[in-house]
Design a protein that fits this description.
about 0% strand, 2 domains, mainly alpha, globular, O-unit flippase
């Protein structure tokens, strides 16, 4: 009996060690890389913001933020295809269909070229005419090129995540962002930051293309202009497109509206605050992204881990910690980062944004689970409605100033509380 008992204890310890080893492997391979990756971009902006403001002025900084904001619309312009590609690739790899994965990536690249290149050629042609405002055409060309290269960047970054090779995705972003930052610094020194920002985005997308082709899929990706495949990508991503259309209201719409209504200088005051709030939000959101391909795989196999809901709730609570800390130390952070006068004028704005984005951070766990279990239609409807209401409310209050605009950020997370009801119904219907 003693021998049998000893064997049971030994097996139990062995199982505990295996669980611990698997947990550490999950943290190092699946969870930590997306967090670090998502942190790299905002960190670069965090470093560059005071440098640009102090060297080029608030107006030039406002124009720079405007260009970056426009380039972020690329996923909406391409109908959400690159945003949805991680899920479709993950599903194909679960059944070992690597040929379909190659078709998905090639057709997605083709769609990007089909959308942006005609506009680029048209404005390059218009630039040849003397009676055209060449300065305006130059800016439009740079905006189109920035969107084109940003979407290529999104394609290969998200495709790599579909392979669940988050360490490679981190490598791409780290190398690309170092080069990107170097190009921006050159732009600051040459007093031509808009042009060099476009160069920076192009260089970063090229790096991701090379790493994805050479290390991830191990073939050089060339466009494949198959009408059937391109149409399939559009059909697959239709609900993601609607979700992105709504999501842009939270992260980008205000940065386009403020310079129009209040001026570029007001954007320069608002952008650092929203930048910090989005940085605090992006860290947990990046960690929670792994839930989408993970739950997609669970659903395809019909097997969910025990007590997953408790772990998700715990993850949701921890997701709000960065924004909570930002709320407490908002005034001190702004004073150290930029200067004391800027902090005294704008720390209340940052606190309001920290609460709004903190709520959204907590709900991001359920957001990615809903996408993973195939509820993209419902997610798209919620985000589209929330986005529409946010944009409408922002337009209505914009004339009263930034202090009113920031409170409109609460509309989006309030609408997303619907996820909790949907998760409850999913558990009930699936017998979890």
């Amino acid at each position: 009996m003693k021998i049998k008992y000893s064997l049971l204890i030994a097996n139990k310890k062995k199982n505990q060690l295996m669980i611990s080893s698997n947990s550490m492997r999950f943290l190092s391979n699946k969870l930590i890389p997306p967090i670090v990756e998502q942190f790299i971009g905002p960190l670069a902006l965090f470093i560059l913001t005071p440098i640009i403001i102090n060297n080029l002025g608030t107006k030039e900084y406002g124009l720079w933020i405007l260009l970056l904001s426009l380039s972020m619309f690329s996923q909406v312009i391409c109908f959400g295809v690159t945003a949805w590609i991680a899920k479709t690739i993950s599903e194909c790899l679960s059944i070992s269909d690597i040929l379909k994965v190659k078709r998905i990536v090639r057709s997605s690249l083709s769609l990007i070229f089909i959308i942006f290149l005609p506009f680029l050629f048209v404005f390059i042609f218009l630039y040849l005419f003397d009676e055209i405002d060449k300065a305006l055409i130059e800016i439009i060309i740079l905006c189109i090129m920035s969107c084109l290269f940003q979407e290529i960047d999104n394609l290969f970054a998200n495709a790599t995540k579909g392979f669940e090779l988050f360490d490679y995705s981190l490598l791409m972003e780290a190398i690309g962002r170092v080069v990107w930052t170097g190009c921006i610094v050159v732009g600051i020194l040459r007093n031509d930051i808009i042009f060099y920002t476009c160069v920076a985005i192009a260089a970063k997308s090229l790096i991701k293309y090379i790493i994805f082709s050479f290390f991830v899929i191990k073939i050089w990706i060339i466009p494949s202009y198959s009408i059937y495949e391109i149409n399939s990508r559009l059909i697959e991503s239709k609900w993601m497109f609607l979700q992105l259309l709504g999501g842009t209201s939270l992260s980008l719409f205000d940065r386009l509206l403020i310079p129009i209504v209040l001026g570029v200088n007001k954007l320069a005051a608002y952008a650092p605050c929203i930048q910090l709030a989005q940085l605090a939000f992006s860290v947990p959101a990046a960690a929670n992204q792994v839930l989408m391909p993970m739950f997609s795989r669970f659903k395809s196999k019909g097997n969910y881990p025990p007590n997953w809901l408790k772990m998700v709730i715990l993850l949701s609570i921890f997701s709000g910690v960065p924004c909570f800390l930002l709320f407490i130390f908002s005034q001190e952070i702004l004073a150290i980062w930029i200067n004391t006068s800027f902090s005294n004028e704008n720390y209340i704005i940052l606190r309001v944004l920290a609460v709004a984005y903190g709520t959204l951070s907590c709900l991001s766990t359920f957001h990615f689970i809903m996408l993973g279990i195939g509820e993209s239609k419902m997610v798209a409807k919620i985000n589209l409605l929330a986005g529409g209401l946010t944009m409408l409310a922002t337009i209505l209050v914009s004339q009263f100033g930034i202090n009113y605009i920031v409170y409109m950020k609460f509309i989006y997370p309030i609408m997303q509380f619907k996820y909790l009801t949907s998760i409850k119904n999913f558990i009930k219907n699936s017998g979890q």
